């Protein structure tokens, strides 16, 4: 089990452990039924056919759940990594294998067990009791008849029964649980020796460079690309030809008085005396008296701002002499607002009690409600009205423009008529996108689907419209060395420098293995110094100065007091690193005692999951399984 934890130190297993989430054994997708002879299948498992239609329903439902989790569309890079179709069909195959084995063993679910399961499901209960109307409403909402739903529920119960039969015998060992807990909760202190690659000053050997290029030419392949011309435009392009009459501006001004009215405002200062959350009546009275005493001192001649700096407990305003700035009604606490707007400038308020404590206010200045003159508001109104006109007009202009382009196939000429810019771009790749515009996958898919000379659909990119005309398609190619010689030379020199740094690291490692007690002296003999890092968990996944990845995980999980030196140099962003363990900070027995029960349950779930996966793999190997080429 410890080996399992080490091998998957940054995988889902550890992530689940860190999140305290219990691993689920298998997805229950619903039964597709044996003996379906349709050619339209997703998979065949022995004598059971999983229809493609059934797979599609499950796939769509699973995707919908993921979209809800992401709050919208699922990121494409996540979908590529997950391979959802494979996950869903594998879950359905697993389910089928479980049900087939349950049938062989003579397992079954009788009606009384089904009734008990449904009647005790909280989803169908109201006030702790089964509610038939609630049950029927649920079945209706998922577009199933009670008979169909209950048959599917029976199969789910049968699957659970089969899983329990397989995994109930799986146990944990208390010593192993404690060892695994420490593996996850102990922290390791690491010391790092970083060897920076040094610039290569020797001339480049042309034959070696050619060999390097041939070995790595796939890295320099130019992907398929497009040469195109495209028109991109938005409502901004229409503004230059638009105007607003003074009558229109005045009409807007008269019809929207609130937009041009500045409300009454007060410039005030405060001194706050905070109250503890659990303040007793006695404490509250003491704080109020302190506020009252301070008010009297200010009225006796002390400067409000100076007193605020020394006495106020409001972190936001104390250093500024309690200055709250100008504020209008509805922007501060109502009790403070009421007093501030009633208080005469220069006067100090009585203590005002709020949830924070007691406040003293003083008004510096008041500004009455004012109406902005039309002459001052005119320019702002004109900008707004022109923008509104342009936004309304661009939609119809875009449709008219596209219709003319589509009929004439003359993108440049039509754009000139409408006053839109036409740009040209060469070697546009899917990943690189259209220069200074977009690499949106949907736009790039449209562009790459075009034939030479063909016009795209009218596309939207944010608030811009885009029309593409494909000029030529460029196939992927590996350029000759001379075309990209400078880039290749830079990469070659980087590799040579990295190789030299690695060779030096290996020399140092050899010396350290021979005399580990002389670690500091050995580092100094190479002009280097060990860098002590902060203690981290073995399951951290990322280490300062080292980064993350499989090598780092392997290092974190393999170092021990018996073997403190990692035997292999690590490649990092800054160079080549040698790592050694300097200490292990153990989790406390008290903490283990608090977490042991929950941790043991998690370990048991992991063990059961691993056992079930192993059993399913064994059954897969024995079964006759045919996955459709569509998937």
From TrEMBL:
<dbReference type="GO" id="GO:0005886">
    <property type="term" value="C:plasma membrane"/>
</dbReference>
<dbReference type="InterPro" id="IPR000297">
    <property type="entry name" value="PPIase_PpiC"/>
</dbReference>
<dbReference type="GO" id="GO:0003755">
    <property type="term" value="F:peptidyl-prolyl cis-trans isomerase activity"/>
</dbReference>
<dbReference type="Pfam" id="PF00639">
    <property type="entry name" value="Rotamase"/>
</dbReference>
<dbReference type="InterPro" id="IPR027304">
    <property type="entry name" value="Trigger_fact/SurA_dom_sf"/>
</dbReference>
<dbReference type="InterPro" id="IPR052029">
    <property type="entry name" value="PpiD_chaperone"/>
</dbReference>
<dbReference type="InterPro" id="IPR046357">
    <property type="entry name" value="PPIase_dom_sf"/>
</dbReference>
<keyword id="KW-0697">Rotamase</keyword>
<dbReference type="Pfam" id="PF13145">
    <property type="entry name" value="Rotamase_2"/>
</dbReference>
<keyword id="KW-1133">Transmembrane helix</keyword>
<feature type="domain" description="PpiC">
    <location>
        <begin position="376"/>
        <end position="472"/>
    </location>
</feature>
<dbReference type="InterPro" id="IPR023058">
    <property type="entry name" value="PPIase_PpiC_CS"/>
</dbReference>
<keyword id="KW-0997">Cell inner membrane</keyword>
<dbReference type="Pfam" id="PF13624">
    <property type="entry name" value="SurA_N_3"/>
</dbReference>
<comment type="similarity">
    <text>Belongs to the PpiD chaperone family.</text>
</comment>
<keyword id="KW-0413">Isomerase</keyword>
<keyword id="KW-0472">Membrane</keyword>
<feature type="domain" description="PpiC">
    <location>
        <begin position="263"/>
        <end position="365"/>
    </location>
</feature>
<protein>
    <recommendedName>
        <fullName>Periplasmic chaperone PpiD</fullName>
    </recommendedName>
</protein>
<keyword id="KW-0143">Chaperone</keyword>
<keyword id="KW-1003">Cell membrane</keyword>
<feature type="transmembrane region" description="Helical">
    <location>
        <begin position="12"/>
        <end position="31"/>
    </location>
</feature>
<keyword id="KW-0812">Transmembrane</keyword>
């Amino acid at each position: 089990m410890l080996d399992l934890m080490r091998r998957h130190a940054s995988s889902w297993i550890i992530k689940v452990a860190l999140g305290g989430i219990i691993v689920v054994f298998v997805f229950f997708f619903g039964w597709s039924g044996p003996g379906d002879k349709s050619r339209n299948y997703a998979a065949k498992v022995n004598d059971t056919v999983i229809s493609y239609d059934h797979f599609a329903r499950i796939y769509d439902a699973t995707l919908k759940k993921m979209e809800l989790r992401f709050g919208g569309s699922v990121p494409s890079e996540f979908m590529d990594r997950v391979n959802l179709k494979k996950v869903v069909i594998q879950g359905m195959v697993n389910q089928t294998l479980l049900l087939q084995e349950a049938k062989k063993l003579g397992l079954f679910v009788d009606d009384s067990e089904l009734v008990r399961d449904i009647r005790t499901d909280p989803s169908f209960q109201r006030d702790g009791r089964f509610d038939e109307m609630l049950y029927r409403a649920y079945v209706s909402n998922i577009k199933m008849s009670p008979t169909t739903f209950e048959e599917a529920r029976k199969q789910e119960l049968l699957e659970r029964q089969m899983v329990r039969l397989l995994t109930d015998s799986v146990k944990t060992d208390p010593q192993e649980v404690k060892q695994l807990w420490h593996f996850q909760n102990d922290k390791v202190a690491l010391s790092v020796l970083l060897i920076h690659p040094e610039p290569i000053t020797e001339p480049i050997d042309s034959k070696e460079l050619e060999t390097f290029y041939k070995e790595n030419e796939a890295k320099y392949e130019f992907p398929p690309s497009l040469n195109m011309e495209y028109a991109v435009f938005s409502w901004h392009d229409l503004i230059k030809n638009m105007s607003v009459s003074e009558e229109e501006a005045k009409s807007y001004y008269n019809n929207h008085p609130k937009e041009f009215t500045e409300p009454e405002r007060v410039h005030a200062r405060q001194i706050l005396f905070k109250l503890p959350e659990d303040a007793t009546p006695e404490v509250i009275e003491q704080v109020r008296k302190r506020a009252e005493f301070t008010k009297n001192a200010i009225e006796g001649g002390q400067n409000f701002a100076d007193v605020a700096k020394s006495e106020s407990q409001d972190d936001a305003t104390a250093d500024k002499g309690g200055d709250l700035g100008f504020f209008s009604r509805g922007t501060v606490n109502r009790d403070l607002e009421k007093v501030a707007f009633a208080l005469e400038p220069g006067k100090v308020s009585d203590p005002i009690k709020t949830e924070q404590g007691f406040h003293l206010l003083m008004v510096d200045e008041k500004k009455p409600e004012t109406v902005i003159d039309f002459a001052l508001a005119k320019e702002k109104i004109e900008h707004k009205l022109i923008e509104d006109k342009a936004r309304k007009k661009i939609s119809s202009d875009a449709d008219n423009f596209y219709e003319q382009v589509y009929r004439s196939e003359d993108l440049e000429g039509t754009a000139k008529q409408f006053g839109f810019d036409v740009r040209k771009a060469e070697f546009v790749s899917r990943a690189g996108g259209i220069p200074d515009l977009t690499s949106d996958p949907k736009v790039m898919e449209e562009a790459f689907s075009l034939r030479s000379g063909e016009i795209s659909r009218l596309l939207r990119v944010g608030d811009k419209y885009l029309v593409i005309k494909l000029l030529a398609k460029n196939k992927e190619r590996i350029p000759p060395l001379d075309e990209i010689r400078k880039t290749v030379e830079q990469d070659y020199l980087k590799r040579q420098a990295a190789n030299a740094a690695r060779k030096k690291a290996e020399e140092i490692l050899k010396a350290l293995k021979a005399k580990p007690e002389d670690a500091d002296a050995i580092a100094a003999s190479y002009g280097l110094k060990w860098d002590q890092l902060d203690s981290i968990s073995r399951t951290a996944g990322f280490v300062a100065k080292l980064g993350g990845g499989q090598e780092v995980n392997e290092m974190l999980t393999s170092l021990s007091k018996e073997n403190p030196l990692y035997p292999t140099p690590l490649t990092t962003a800054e160079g080549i690193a040698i790592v050694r363990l300097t200490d292990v900070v153990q989790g406390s027995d008290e903490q283990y005692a608090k977490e042991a029960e929950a941790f043991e349950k998690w370990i048991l779930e992991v063990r059961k999951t691993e056992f079930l996966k192993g059993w399913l793999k064994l059954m897969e190997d024995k079964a006759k399984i045919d996955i459709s080429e569509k998937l």
